[in-house]
């Protein structure tokens, strides 16, 4: 064992030679970068399936009394669409894929703390997807992604499959969370203090904390539901003395923090891209870092804002309403810091930057409608209308998905060694941005006019708007084809990226693209923060050519 | 042997051990949260009814659970001594106390089986009422943890006999002991909640 390996950067006691068989290299890989790609491919596939379900729903909703999908099929479609988007797409891409790809590189580590567990938690994920989509065979769940009892107790076997699928995702998410947190706490390169960490790492740390604390509640709730469905043990069924509201408490004690699991990494992505393309230090580094922590902690104290209409006493509702509005403050701090970074920046409008600007406008809008929903009197009116559907898509699609694409365009060269095509990227952006707003903006008004959500037919007065929404949704779906084409074409024949195509200053750009096995030959020493444009690079001892030398 | 200077290897070992300990600690925290969710559910459901247990349901007996608790806490003590003797290099006593811990753990499981048998005989089953649901789920979850713990300790003992651990390097043993004490602590909460709280 060489001293250089022993100082602070072992992954598991000693370094193995790189795997030589195909299976070990690409299937059961323990390399964080390969696992990241596995996540990208698998959740990309689930994104297509969940998106097709959305298009089916919009086809049904294109005219008022359409009979394309039966009410039951419609219920199944939105339930699986919502569940898949949350658990099989957004969370795995942001944590499993981006977290795995970027976080170890940015802290100067050779891998995550527990590579074997990392592989294990990836392999819980494809079976979960198969269970979830396979549930259509027995009749998929019909009570939405929240599967409230007692309805979810009466559904067919597909709902049990849903329970098992989400349970697997929960276990996977918990393991990834604790793995990442140990990695960030214990494996930072020398000199990488907490306040020198890239902001994406801060976001990943808080997300990891939320994943392994909050997700355990989800596992408990699901275990209860599965037991009750299988053995008739009463927890939630009011007819047998159980309480359906109990499910809501535990479920939302997970799922509210989970909405931050779905957005904090996107915040982190935005915080990396902005300084790179504004060519100036990010404004309010500490404000952005600490507000993530504040959001993480507050997120545990607001779950009951999802339950305003479930019969909570008014004196319980009030503190939840106020606390929810308080979460807006740290989020606002971030938005102001980003805008201040743009202010006076030397902005370069690359594709990642387009998506960041798209993110800033749509997410902020979704945040504002969120504050509207947090107000109890307004929520009682808007609850279960299309206003909520509009809000949640502005946050999840306009926020998380725009953030994901920003990150994909930004880090694609690091992952594949080749650049994505900028012109195709901009076409993708404009198609997606315009059709996104055309799809979801009108949902606000039909919601305020009273169109209920989760219905397959509706009053003809909403006909014209719905047709417009459906057409926009098809364009939105088609815009993804531009990306798919770009991704395939560029990976095969794109321009070679080189080490640092954007002139960024975080550690992952100091090594070749794609990074070699075990990332760093010599572990870097970090001398100052990552965003000080105009100053010399803050690292010592990074050798760029890392031809593999076996260290046993 | 015991006090030679740390080589690079030892430093490496300590680093890896610290990482694993932290990871294991986080795992235990997430497990605590699973128990907390169920405990929250227990208190919540219990607060929705007038009488606990509901009329006509035979509750679990305090005295039997009391005896069983003593067995479990006793196993915590023997585990503690096993660990101490290992650290002082007394292999023989270490093995003895480990075996005692495992037997006491099995004794606890036996006691629980006996308790379940009695309750089922009296008509209190898992699906019978929210009392049965809460009682059997919480104790069952704990019993399952004890069962895993027994297997964990047996594995540790076999590893120790094979010479996997040295006096400086015994992460597996530490983890086993931590897990066992964790199961003990959870039982304190469950015991007060399920049997003592009238
Ligand atoms: C082409 C893009 C998309 C379209 C056209 C679309 C459309 C829809 C529609 C029509 C519904 C059902 C509304 C209702 O009847 O209540 C829905 C629900 C939902 N969507 Fe999307 N969606 C899209 C993308 C996404 C994305 C990217 C996410 C990311 C997480 C997402 C998350 C959800 C969730 C969580 C629900 C709630 C399901 C439920 O009611 O239980 N959607 N979507
Ligand atoms: Cu919430």
Helix and strand arrangement:
The complex is a heterodimer of chains A (552) and B (198).
Chain A lengths: L2 H4 L15 H6 L4 H30 L9 H36 L8 H9 L1 H10 L16 H4 L3 H29 L12 H33 L12 H18 L2 H15 L6 H14 L15 H29 L8 H24 L1 H7 L3 H31 L5 H27 L14 H31 L31 E2 L12 E2 L12
Antiparallel strand pairs in A: 1-2
Helix pairs in contact in A: 3-4, 3-5, 3-18, 4-6, 4-8, 4-9, 4-16, 5-8, 6-8, 8-9, 9-10, 9-11, 9-12, 11-13, 11-14, 11-16, 12-13, 13-14, 14-16, 14-17, 16-17, 17-18
Chain B lengths: L7 H40 L14 H26 L3 H31 L8 H32 L9 H26 L2
Helix pairs in contact in B: 1-4, 1-5, 2-3, 2-5, 3-4, 4-5
Copper (II) ion binds next to helix 10 of chain A.
Structural write-up:
The complex is a heterodimer of chains A (552) and B (198). Chain A has helices at residues 3-6, 22-27, 32-61, 71-106, 115-123, 125-134, 151-154, 158-186, 199-231, 244-261, 264-278, 285-298, 314-342, 351-374, 376-382, 386-416, 422-448, 463-493, and strands at residues 525-526, 539-540. With 552 residues, chain A is an all-alpha fold. Chain A has a two-stranded antiparallel ribbon. Chain A is globular. Mean pLDDT of chain A is 91; it is low at 1-13 and 545-552. Chain B has 198 residues and is an all-alpha fold. Chain B is 78% helix and 0% strand. Chain B is elongated and about 65 Å long. The interface between A and B is large, with 44 and 35 residues. The complex binds protoporphyrin IX containing FE and copper (II) ion.
């Amino acid at each position: 064992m060489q001293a250089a390996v022993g100082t602070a950067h072992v992954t598991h006691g000693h370094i193995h030679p790189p795997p030589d068989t195909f299976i070990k290299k690409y299937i059961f890989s323990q390399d964080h970068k390969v696992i990241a790609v596995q996540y990208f491919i698998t959740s990309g596939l689930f994104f297509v399936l969940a998106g097709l379900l959305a298009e089916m729903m919009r086809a049904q909703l294109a005219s008022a009394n359409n009979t394309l999908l039966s009410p039951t099929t419609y219920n199944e479609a939105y339930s699986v669409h919502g569940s898949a988007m949350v658990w099989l797409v957004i969370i795995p891409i942001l944590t499993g894929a981006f977290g795995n790809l970027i976080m170890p590189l940015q802290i100067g580590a050779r891998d995550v703390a527990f590579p074997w567990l990392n592989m294990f938690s990836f392999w819980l994920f494809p079976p979960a997807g198969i269970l979830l989509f396979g549930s259509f065979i027995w009749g998929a769940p019909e009570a939405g992604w929240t599967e409230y009892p007692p309805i979810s107790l009466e559904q067919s076997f597909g709902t049990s499959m849903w329970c098992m699928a989400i349970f697997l995702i929960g276990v996977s998410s918990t393991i990834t969370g604790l793995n990442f947190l140990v990695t960030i706490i214990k494996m930072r390169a020398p000199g990488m203090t907490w306040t020198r960490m890239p902001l994406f790492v801060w976001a990943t740390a808080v997300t990891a904390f939320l994943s392994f604390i909050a997700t355990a509640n989800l596992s408990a709730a699901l275990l209860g539901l599965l037991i009750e469905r299988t053995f008739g043990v009463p927890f939630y069924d009011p007819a047998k003395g159980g309480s359906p509201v109990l499910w809501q408490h535990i479920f939302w004690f997970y799922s509210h923090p989970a909405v931050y699991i779905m957005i904090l990494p996107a915040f982190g992505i935005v915080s990396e891209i902005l300084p790179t393309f504004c060519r100036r230090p990010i404004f309010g580094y500490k404000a952005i870092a600490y507000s993530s922590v504040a959001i993480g902690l507050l997120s545990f104290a607001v779950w009951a804002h999802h339950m305003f209409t479930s019969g909570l006493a008014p004196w319980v509702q009030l503190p939840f309403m106020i606390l929810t509005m308080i979460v807006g403050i740290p989020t606002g701090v971030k938005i102001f810091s980003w805008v201040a970074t743009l202010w006076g920046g030397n902005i370069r409008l690359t594709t990642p930057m387009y998506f960041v600007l798209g993110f800033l406008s749509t997410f902020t809008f979704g945040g504002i409608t969120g504050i509207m929903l947090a107000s109890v009197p307004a929520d009682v009116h808007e609850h279960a209308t299309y206003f909520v559907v509009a809000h949640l898509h502005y946050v999840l699609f306009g926020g998380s998905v725009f953030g994901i694409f920003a990150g994909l365009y930004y880090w694609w060269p690091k992952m594949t060694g080749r650049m994505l095509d900028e012109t195709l990227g901009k076409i993708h952006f404009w198609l997606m941005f315009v059709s996104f707003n055309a799809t979801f903006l009108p949902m606000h008004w039909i919601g305020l006019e009273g169109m209920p959500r989760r219905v397959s037919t509706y009053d003809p007065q909403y006909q014209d708007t719905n047709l417009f929404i459906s057409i926009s949704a098809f364009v939105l779906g088609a815009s993804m084809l531009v990306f798919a084409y770009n991704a395939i074409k560029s990976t095969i024949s794109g321009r070679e990226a080189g080490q640092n195509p954007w002139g960024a200053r975080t550690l992952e750009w100091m090594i070749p693209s794609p990074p070699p096995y075990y990332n760093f030959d010599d572990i870097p020493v970090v001398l100052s923060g990552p965003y000080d444009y105009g100053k010399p690079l803050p690292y010592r001892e990074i050798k760029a050519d890392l031809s593999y030398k076996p260290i046993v | 042997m015991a006090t030679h200077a740390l080589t690079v290897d030892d430093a490496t070992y300590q680093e890896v051990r610290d990482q694993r300990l932290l990871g294991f600690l986080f795992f235990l925290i997430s497990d605590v949260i699973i128990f907390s969710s169920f405990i929250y559910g227990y208190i919540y459901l219990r607060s929705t009814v007038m009488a606990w247990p509901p009329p006509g349901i035979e509750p679990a007996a305090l005295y039997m659970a009391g005896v069983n608790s003593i067995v479990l806490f006793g196993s915590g003590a023997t585990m503690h001594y096993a660990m101490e003797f290992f650290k002082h290099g007394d292999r023989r006593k270490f093995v003895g106390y480990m075996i005692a811990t495992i037997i006491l753990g099995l004794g606890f499981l036996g006691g629980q089986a006996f308790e379940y048998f009695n309750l089922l005989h009296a008509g209190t089953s898992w699906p019978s009422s929210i009392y049965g649901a809460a009682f059997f789920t919480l104790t069952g979850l704990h019993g399952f943890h004890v069962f895993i713990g027994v297997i964990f300790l047996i594995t540790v003992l076999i590893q120790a006999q094979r010479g996997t651990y040295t006096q400086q390097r015994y992460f597996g043993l530490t983890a086993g002991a931590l897990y066992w004490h964790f199961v003990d602590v959870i039982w304190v909460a469950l015991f007060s909640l399920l049997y003592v709280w009238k």
